[in-house]
Every structure is written in structure tokens, then in C-alpha cells.
Amino acid sequence: MMDTEGDPLPTGVSAFEAAGVIDQTALDRFAALIEKKDIFWKYVDMGDLKAGSIARLTRTALPGEKSAYKMRMNQNHNPNVQFATLAHELAHLFLGHLGQDKYLSIPIRPTQTHTQQELEAESTAYIVCTRNGVENQSASYLKNYVEKDTTTERLDMYQIMRAAGQVETLLGLAAHTKVDKPQKKRNETLPLFPSNSPDNSPDLFETDS
């Protein structure tokens, strides 16, 4: 489908759609910025069934040093779709789905199901896209993961908003309102995974969107 010529496909035919203000110049700037943090961006021909992925290549054992990551981007998509993919994959990173990274201020998170990770990542991507002039198909994407008993109470909104801010900061986008971590109530249960728990995330964990 991606190699044929003819009239543009109607809305809803392509698996991934987005419209907005992002152009190739902006994407090139984003690629240069994330590479400074050892997040390497590669364009790949994925047809139209996948948008991208991110994986951890190396995990540093020394504080203050960077781990390395590889992000693949579908070269067939337009710049606005690629921006939505960029936001989604970086959301996986900053939400801790690939494990803790002290250099990037990524915390240890409790183990989550794939569905929970996708809900968090796409919710984060939706915030980043909406605040930066891109309208994507988050609702269509998320409906594939929403279960009957899924509610907003199962989403950690603090972590989602924190990750959205970190993605925007990394990409050099306009600063938005800082989200303060909610204060614990006196009788609130302590987290199952305290901040000093060992990070058992795999060294090479890949998420596809």
C-alpha cells in the first residue's frame, strides 16, 4: 500500500494518522537533541503496520554516566505521525518501562502489564502532541488496549504528567506547568517497590507502537 501511487487514502484507512505543525526540519532538530543523551534514532521501512520502537542497548553501572538507547522510526510516515511516534516511544523511556535511568532522572516503577504500559505511553504522547500543535489518533490507538474494567484510577497521572514534561524538555519544546508530586496521606500504604529496590528490568526491552 505504501509504494503505490494515486489519490490520498481516506481518513481511517492508514493505521497511523496525525496532522499538525511538525516538519522535517523540526524532526532533524529533535534527532540531534536526543542523540546528545545517547538515544539514537534510525529510520526503518515498517510498511504501515508499525510506527516505531525503543530499546535499551547498554546499561551503565556507574552513577552519572549515560546508558544507550536505540529508537526506530517508520520512514513511510509523515512528520506529524513521526512526532507522535517519537512522543510515544520517549514516553515509554521516561515512564520507566525500560527500567531506571538515574542520568535521565527515570525512576524505578512497579511491574506493569503491556496494556498498562501502552495506556500510560499513549496518554503521555497525547499530552505532548496536544500541547505542541499535533492532532493524533490516540483515542483510536488506545481502544485496542482498554479493558472493560480499566478506569482512570488505574493510571498514575503524576507519572504521566512528569514524563510528558521530561519529553518536552528533552526535545527543547516550550516549558509547561510543573507538576508537583502528590503528598502522601498519613495512612497511605507505602509503595510496593521503594526507590532503593533493585532494577530488574531487562537490558534490552523493546516496545512497539
Automatic annotation (TrEMBL):
Residues 68-147 form the IrrE N-terminal-like domain. InterPro entries: IrrE_HExxH (IPR010359). Signal peptide: none annotated. Residues 178-209 are annotated as: Disordered. Residues 178-188 have a biased composition (Basic and acidic residues). It holds the Pfam family Peptidase_M78. It comes from the Bacteria. This is IrrE N-terminal-like domain-containing protein. It comes from Rhodoferax antarcticus ANT.BR.
